[in-house]
Amino acid sequence: MPRLTDERREERRRHILTSAWTCFSANGFHATSMDDVIAATGMSSSAVYRYFRSKDDLIDAAADEAMTLVRSLFDGLLAQSPTASPAQVVAAMVGEVRDRDARSEYDLTRIAIQSWGEALRRPGLEERTRAFYLGVHGQLEELARRWCEEGQVPADGDPRGIATVLMTLMPGLLVGRHLVAPVSAEHLIAGLSSLGSASWTS
Questions:
Q1: Does residue 63 contact residue 111 with C-beta atoms inside 8 Å?
Q2: pLDDT in tens, 34-88
Q3: pTM here?
Q4: Among 83, 88, 108, 170, which one is least packed by beta carbons within 10 Å?
Q5: Running DSSP on this structure, what letter comes out for residue 102?
Q6: What residues contact residue 64 under an 8 Å CB cut-off, 6+ apart?
């Protein structure tokens, strides 16, 4: 039997991953068995286990993929010139949550919600998840710093505080989409604007 090329090996690995993500998106981590994943791939069990030793390996890869896509979103926003405005950033966040499942057979926003619970029981995933969100906070803080310098928010604004607010919105967008009701960018921006005019003295 001819040896697989690196390209073909990566194609098989990706096929296994996307098959697993489709199962996870539909039925959750714990209601999905390795047999379910193997059946979805159409491959033999030995071929699948050659790439992934366990369901936990597939869960880790799913969580990492979801985090990578979010990081890429903010990398793109940071690369824009002129700087993306606060409204554009909020609209991009809402759009990423709204449109994610339309791009493939699996919905990584559903997987992201599941991965939070998984991170609470698995220290390795918890550590990676925390590092990821701290990194996203840093990306948002850099955007906020630019807004202060460019006059898009008051010059004496708090970039760290702004970043914290925006990062805290992200889980709420996912919960709203899947468990309450989707939130539009316009509605969210209007609410943030109204809240910004509030008196915060106690």
A1: yes
A2: 999 999 999 999 999 999 999 999 999 988 888 888 889 999 999 999 999 999 9
A3: 0.86
A4: 88
A5: G
A6: 128
